[in-house]
Amino acid sequence: MRLLIINGPNLNLLGMREPEIYGNEGFDTYLQRLRAKYPEVEIEYYQSNVEGELINKLHEAGFSCDGIILNAGAYTHTSIAIADAVAAIRTPVIEVHISNVARREEFRRHSFLTPVCKGVISGFGLGSYELAVLDFLVVKNGLPNS
Ligand code: DQA
After folding, report:
1. Residue nearest to atom 9 of ligand 1 (CA)
2. How many CB atoms lie within 10 A of CB 144?
């Protein structure tokens, strides 16, 4: 199974950016741990601070990979163009947020992406990305035997 994680603006600064909200770990080390934990899943990664580049990546991957995990950062709350791109592609997209956006400022409570995404995972720290991986795995393989 091939998944793509797309991170939007300012998420390149994870580990340094507002650690009380986003934690102390950079995304590179988290991604290494995630890949090691799920070796059966091919996890590609893309980050950009530029709205059009995020859209280009959605177009590029959106007809080939099995799932996209999208943290569009602040574009979540502003970008009709990214929402249109998610609606245009075939691959299912899960919207993720590191922080619990519903507990923060009022302007973070609205997402243009939620109506076009499969679902939203918000507030579990970097674990939000793993929960999205697990959803794609369960859809593909069913629940693991205990
Ligand atoms: C975020 C939440 C957004 O409101 C914010 O603009 C971000 C990060 C999160 O992961 O919690 O950049 O998407």
Report:
1. 97
2. 8
Instruction: Tell me, yes or no, whether 114 lies in a domain.
Output: no
Which CATH number do you get for residue 87?
Answer: 3.40.50.9100
Closest atom of ligand 1 relative to the 11 alpha carbon: 12
In a domain, 17, yes or no: yes
Provide residues with CB under 6 Å of ligand 1. Answer: 10, 71, 73-74, 76, 97-99, 101, 108
Query: pLDDT tens across 67-113, in order?
Result: 999 999 999 999 999 999 999 999 999 999 999 999 999 999 999 99
Helix (H, G, I), strand (E, B) or coil at 104: coil
- The packing angle between helices 127-141 and 27-37, to 10°, is 30
Of the pLDDT bands very low, low, confident and very high (cuts 50, 70, 90), residue 145 is: confident
